[in-house]
Each structure stands twice: as C-alpha cells, then as structure tokens.
Specification:
The protein is built from five helices and 43 strands. It is an alpha/beta fold. The protein starts with a helix and ends in a 5-residue tail after the last strand.
Length: 475
C-alpha cells in the first residue's frame, strides 16, 4: 500500500475512533460530562479518582442521624457504668440531712445519697465511691422533654436543682471531684446552674463541674447557665501545687488520671465550652447534647461546644452538638507551659456525633495540630449538617484519620486536609458544599484515599493543590 493509501486508511480508522469516543461521551450524559471536566480541573490523578465513588449521596435526616448517634452512645456507655456497686445505706436529703454536703460527708463508699425535689444553694465536693442521685419516686424516672433540646432527661433532673447563685467566685465548681475518685463515684440526675461568672481562659478558674484527676460517672444532668465551662476535665500532676511556670507537664509526672464517663447530659448556655478536655484527660463523652454555649463576652472568639488540647484523648461518641457560635468539636495543641511541656499529642476519637449550625467562625469538627502516626486524631462516622464554615478538617500539621463521615450543606469545602497528614481519607460522603467536596492543600499529604463520594457541590469533587500529595495504592 502506498503512502496515500496508508494515510487514507489511518484517517478512516481515526474517524471511527472519534465517532465511537463521541458516542461514548454522549452516552455519559451532562452530569457525567460535568464531573469529568471538574475532575480534570481538580488536579487529582486519574489512578486516585478511579478509587473514589460516583454514588449519589443520600444523607439521613437529622432525626435519623440522632437515633444512630444515641444508640452508639448507649452501647458504648453500658460496659463503663457499674449498676451493682452501690448496695450500702441510703442517706436522704433533707429528711436525714439538711444539706447535700453533710450527707456526702457522712456517707461511706457504696452508700447512696438521695436528694428530694427542691433547690439547694450549695457547692458540692464528692467522695469516692458515693452515689449522689435525685429522688426517683412519683414518676421521677419518666423521660421528659427539655425546652429547646432534642434529648430527654428524667423528670427528677428538672425538679432537683443545685444552684450557685448565692456563692462567690472561687476555684470551686458546682460539683468538685477530689483527685483519685473512680467510676464508682456517680452523680445522677440534677440541674446544675448559676456558677458565678469568671474567665475560664485564666489559670485557676472553676468549671461548672470540676473533674480534676478524677474519673467519675456524670449522667442525666442538666448543666446550664454557669459562668464558666460546663464540664472541665484535667489530670493532676505530682507537682500540682507548683506555679504553672515551674511545673512538669510530661506524661510521666501525672499522678491522677481523668477518665470519667459523661453520659446523657444536656450542657447548655454556659460561659465557656460545653465540655472541655485538657492535660491528658481521656473521658468517655457519650450521648450528650451540647448547645448554646457562648463566651464571646470575654472578648475573644467564642469557644467551641467541645474542645480538647494539651495531650487530651477523649472518646467522644454519639453526642448532639449544635448552635455553639465558636464551632462544634475542635482539638488543638495548646499553648506551651511549664519547664517541661506536654509530651504526647492531643488525639481524640470523635465518632458518630451529630453536628449542625455551629457558627461561622470555626469548623464543625477539626484538629488544629495534634495527632501522630502512632496516636492519630480519629474522625469517624460523624454527621455534619448546615455549617457556615468548613465541615471537617485537619489543619496546622495535624495527623489523623477521616473515615465514613457524612457532610451536608457547608458554606466552604466539605472536608479539607490543610498542611496536615491524613493517614486515611476513606469512604466519606459530601453533598451540597458551596465549594469543592474535598480539598487537599498547603503541603498536605494523604496516605490512603478510597471510596469517597462528592455530590452536588460547587467546584470539583476533589481539589488537589500543587505541593500536596496523595499516595498511590501501591506506594
């Protein structure tokens, strides 16, 4: 065949290829074509795109997500709370003792202090092994609605009130737990309110409930309108009484851990975080509702609904976190302190929580630093709805795992890895973001990225900025 014949044959073959390709492209439909174009703009390599999902994202309703969350919290709490330990005598307030504190002082480990309905103007100090519970007679255990909340509490919670409005500002909280207390110390079913106002950013402040070097169970309580963080968790060090500037904040210097159980409480309207975790504290925070906590009057950006720093490692499962103007569930490194600083990363596990409408200033869930390859931050199976900022993020050098989360309706990207390392970024779903579904930027590194879906967002499904990397499966 001469040159002209070869050219003619090649031309016919090329036309045939173009026709077939065009037909295939037409068969893709407009949505698939848009996805292909946006994927090219996003800069993610084709080999990585093939590992992601093109499914339609159909998130559950918030009510459906809440049901999933509360079930997960109940399952996590069940093995942590001993329901058989307290078999001692019952001390009744005010029948046997005029004040709650006098009954606690008289109790022994295994005893139960039962408090009848009323308002008690006290600040309480708990004793190891004592159970403090509101009176359950006359329908006290019936779950009742709390105005503005999704969670229900026992009727006895709302009719048994410990009030701090007649107290002065001190280091005392509404309830203090002495260092060394264990999980057989239980507070069950009280409204705890009106701790005097103070600046929780200044060392030496009190919390609504002070959990310092203790591991109690706090359940079925309504912690509201306190002048500091609702529930604060810290370990106690061997040199706890030394000035902060001279203290040793390393793990080996810890004397009493803080690994309590905070279950089925409503934490609302406090001048600080709803629940805060500092200095290696590792409580189990399960099935609480945390909302409308706002400390913007102190002059800084408001604190989030829940926070962790200074090596804290809370396990946070099945909580409902909403309408906190400073963000949802956040963690970070914390400022440097002492002669020896914290020597383990902040690394919470944040799993199956429901978050929505937590302000415009911070993400719904994020880590600003923290985590390591051995102790990563874990964001797994959470539901994020209607946030005016980023949905879920790793920032400022954080090392973490982001898996199986659902993010719906964000003003920015759904999920972002910014200057950080995602050891796993797998099987997350983003819908309705006013930005890309996923952003990997500012020198970020993703080690594993599989099965993510991004549907009906603005911009590309996945955006990989220059200088950031996604490892291939065989690397």
């Amino acid at each position: 065949m001469n040159l002209i014949g070869k050219i003619a044959t090649a031309t016919v073959a090329l036309v045939a290829v173009l026709v077939v390709t065009g037909q295939a492209y037409d068969r893709m439909g407009p949505e698939a074509r848009r996805r292909e174009v946006r994927d090219k703009v996003g800069g993610v390599p084709e080999r990585i795109l093939k590992l992601q999902s093109i499914e339609k994202v159909e998130p559950p309703s918030i009510d459906g997500a809440v049901a999933i969350a509360l079930k997960a919290a109940e399952e996590a709490a069940r093995p942590l709370i001993d329901t058989t330990f307290h078999k001692g005598k019952h001390l009744i307030v005010p029948d046997d003792f005029k004040t709650i504190q006098s009954a606690i002082d008289a109790a022994q480990s295994g005893d139960i202090v039962v408090v009848k309905p009323g308002t008690y103007f006290e600040l309480i100090v708990m004793k190891d092994g004592v159970k403090l519970i509101s009176d359950s007679t006359k329908g006290g255990d019936e779950p009742v609605a709390v105005e503005g909340a999704r969670l229900k509490l026992p009727r006895r919670t709302l009719r048994t009130i410990i009030d701090g409005s007649k107290s002065k500002t001190t280091r005392r909280g509404m309830i203090d737990f002495d260092a060394g207390l264990g999980r057989n110390t239980i507070v069950d079913g009280f409204t705890l309110q009106n701790l005097p106002k103070q600046n929780h950013h200044i060392p030496g402040h009190a919390h609504g409930l002070n959990v310092r070097g203790a591991s109690p169970v706090i359940m079925n309580c309504y912690v509201r309108n306190n002048g500091s963080t609702g529930i604060g968790n810290h370990v106690v060090y061997t040199d706890q009484e030394s000035p902060i500037s001279k203290r040793d904040f390393r793990w080996a210097n810890m004397k009493h851990r803080a690994e309590g159980v905070i279950y089925n409480n409503i934490i609302r309207g406090n001048l600080g975080l709803g629940i805060g975790c500092n200095h290696f504290s590792a409580p189990h925070i399960l099935g609480n509702e945390v909302f409308e906590n706002d400390d913007s009057e102190l002059g800084d950006k408001p604190s989030p609904g829940m926070g962790a720093k200074h090596g804290a490692a809370p396990t946070t499962i099945g909580n409902i976190v909403h309408d906190n103007p400073g963000g949802g569930i956040l963690c970070g490194v914390g400022e440097s302190q002492g002669t020896h600083g914290v020597d383990r990363p902040t690394h919470p596990t944040v799993m199956k929580n429901v978050l929505y409408q937590n302000g415009k200033l911070r993400p719904a869930i994020s880590s600003g630093g923290g985590g390591s390859k051995e102790m990563p931050v874990r964001f797994v199976g959470n539901f994020v709805y209607d946030t005016d900022y980023l949905g879920i993020g790793l920032q400022k050098g954080a090392v973490g795992i982001i898996e199986e989360n659902i993010v719906l309706g964000t003003e920015g990207p759904g999920i972002a890895v910014n200057g950080s390392t995602a050891l796993k970024l797998n099987r997350n779903k983003v819908k309705g973001a006013k930005g890309p579904g996923f952003v990997i930027t500012d020198g970020a590194k993703v080690v594993e990225m599989v099965g993510n879906a991004a549907d009906s967002n603005s911009g590309p499904r996945f955006l990989l900025r220059p200088g950031s990397t996604i490892a291939s499966p065989d690397e």
